[in-house]
UniProtKB/TrEMBL annotation:
It is a multi-pass membrane protein. Solcar repeats lie at residues 1-59, 72-172, 175-260. Keywords: Membrane, Mitochondrion, Repeat, Transmembrane, Transmembrane helix, Transport. This is ADP,ATP carrier protein. It is found in: Mitochondrion membrane. It comes from the Eukaryota. Gene3D superfamilies: Mitochondrial carrier domain (1.50.40.10). Belongs to the mitochondrial carrier (TC 2.A.29) family. Its main location: mitochondrion.
Length: 265
């Protein structure tokens, strides 16, 4: 829904209609278009993200002289959460760049247009590795890391909310698997409303041909002109549906892994 062009979105009836359209035109495989990128990157992304939060926690405790075991204040939690986005971007940016390009390509080409939602006509990527290889051959690391600033503009505030909500909820609920699940679910549903507008802008920018946009202001202006303010929230329904179980399980897995590794340290 985020990568569809304004023309493609006309007449759209929402998440369910979009799902049926994908299955009708591309089969069940269309629902998994671009899945190779997150599959390859999901483990390092989550690992670096949680490591970044722990590192940010240690940094702010050292700077503010907060003893271990004492809860951080809200501003301190925001610092630790925002800090986690910095190292995570090293993995996140190329993974999402590749994912977005794989998602917008069509087997028989697509329509024109200036925006980043233009379907790929001449270039077809066979998968994650082929897409990464072609981007690198054409633009080097700069091409793979296109959209880094927008990713940080999305993830720094997003991770402030994400880890902040999780930590506050978990402190209130106590140490238990159920507390981790509930706190993770709350973190997930709090995260998406904060990041989605910037996520839509980032996806549009990352899939646009080089030189299409000079800055985020141009991306915003064109998107709003074509789709209205609602275009900034494209995909909210699917994101919210996925966020509760996905983040609940992610935080539970992180807590269980930390407990397991603690026995060896």
């Amino acid at each position: 829904m985020q990568t569809a062009s304004a023309k493609d979105k006309k007449g759209s009836k929402g998440t369910f209609a979009t799902l049926l359209d994908i299955v009708k035109t591309e089969g069940l495989g269309g629902l998994y278009r671009g899945v190779s990128a997150p599959l390859v990157a999901v483990a390092p992304i989550w690992a670096v993200s949680f490591w970044g939060f722990d590192t940010g926690d240690k940094i702010i405790r050292a700077l503010a002289a907060v003893p271990a075991g004492q809860a951080l204040s809200l501003p301190q939690l925001c610092f630790a959460g925002g800090f986690s986005a910095l190292p995570t971007a090293l993995v996140m940016v190329p993974a999402e760049r590749i994912k977005c390009l794989l998602q917008i390509q069509q087997s028989e080409g697509g329509g024109g247009g200036k925006g980043g939602n233009t379907k790929i006509k001449k270039k077809q990527y066979k998968g994650f590795q082929d897409c990464a290889s072609q981007i690198y051959k054409e633009s080097g690391l700069r091409g793979l890391y296109k959209g880094t600033v927008l990713t940080l503009m999305r993830d720094v505030p997003g991770c402030m909310v994400y880890f902040g909500v999780y930590t506050i909820a978990k402190n209130a609920l106590g140490e238990s698997p159920v507390a981790a699940l509930v706190s993770g679910a709350l973190a997930g549903v709090s995260f998406w409303p904060v990041i989605l507008p910037m996520d839509c802008l980032k996806s549009r920018y990352q899939t646009a041909p080089d030189g299409t946009y000079k800055n985020v202001g141009e991306v915003y202006t064109q998107l709003v002109q074509e789709e209205g303010v609602g275009g900034l929230f494209a995909g909210m329904g699917p994101a919210m549906i996925r966020s509760m179980p996905a983040n609940a399980v992610s935080f539970l897995g992180a807590e269980l892994t930390k407990s397991f590794l603690a026995g060896f340290m």
